[in-house]
Amino acid sequence: MVVQDSVDAPGVPLEPFLHQVGGHLSVMKYDEHTVCKPLISQEQRFYESLPLAMKRFTPQYKGTITVHLRKDSRGRLSLVANPLTENRGPFTVSTESAAVAIWQTLQQTTGGGALPLAQWQHPQRAHSLKESPATALLRSELRLKAQVPSLVEDANGNPTEKGSFNPWGLHCHRAHLTRLCAEYPENKRHRFLLLENVVSQYKHPCILDLKMGTRQHGDDASEEKKARHMRKCAQSTSARLGMRLCGMQVYQTDKKHFLCKDKYYGRKLSVEGFRQALYQFLHDGTRFRMELLEPIQHQLQALLLVIRSQSSYRFYSSSLLIIYDGQETPQTPHGTNVIKVDVRMIDFAHTTYKGSWNEHTTYDGPDPGYIFGLENLIQILQGIHKGQ
């Protein structure tokens, strides 16, 4: 399904998606149940030809939309979408939302733009920067703990819940705006994919983002990119386990905020360190969430059966999300807790399969690297389960 844009309708300011824990492309919040990300044709084609068996393990595809960069009178940059013309109620964005307030405050700390003008005037110069102000502000956990509380205020200056967002999404958003400013005119139209917000039903979504497989480069990668990705895999748990941690947020009930880890943390983990990180993902700061192990393993086993049945697919550089709610569910009248967990595959820009457009190589059988990673993940969770 491809949704047409409404030319005459007012623009919808896109908010940074504050629960993005990994990846490098900016994911934006369109509404409570929908996120959008820059369109890559190979990923769009994957969603449009998605095998039925995989649909329960991927976000719902909702079409595409046009987005453009806009600068307000104060020099603040934002991405604006033409709203959908489907027959759904009018969509409004609260300018007092936490996402907007946080992003505007961050912009003001660096002079109102994604980067000072001198730094993003020229694309080559922007790409050559070792570290942007956004990276310097957001990447360090120690600095983050000191700075974030003063930034998390709504439009009226009232503090919102401390630690209610993940800094990685803001980092990606800043980097994306920087690139758009450097390479494209302000009124340039960009196409975005519209996808289901898979964490919308969770009050405090705990998210683990795993980069799956033993190989991360696509068939179309240059020799330089291929070598770089092979080096990352060899130096991380990707080679040993068929997966590596790409991002994580875990709600800590004792401190009332998220514990966040990024891809740089994940790249340094040993096999034992990965196991400990997985344990930490299931610990809420007060206790280990033992009740989550069985439903997560059950869904992973179901996904493993699906992947084994998909001949010719190679999910290079895709991620697997494991999601649960950091707020425990109340007991039912029968005295049991309703446990909700989700396992979702995302990021298919380098996925290839028989019949895909512009395929460089046709593969036989299911994806061995992905299967290797899933089997190891299940085995590690089983080990944690037995040790409890």
TrEMBL record:
Keywords: ATP-binding, Kinase, Nucleotide-binding, Transferase. InterPro entries: IPK, IPK_sf. The keyword Coiled coil does not apply. Its EC number is 2.7.-.-. Pfam families: IPK. One of its GO terms (cellular component) is cytoplasm. GO terms for biological process: inositol phosphate biosynthetic process; locomotion; phosphatidylinositol phosphate biosynthetic process. The keyword Transferase applies. GO terms for molecular function: ATP binding; inositol hexakisphosphate 6-kinase activity. Belongs to the inositol phosphokinase (IPK) family. This is Kinase. It comes from Capra hircus (Goat). The gene is IP6K3.
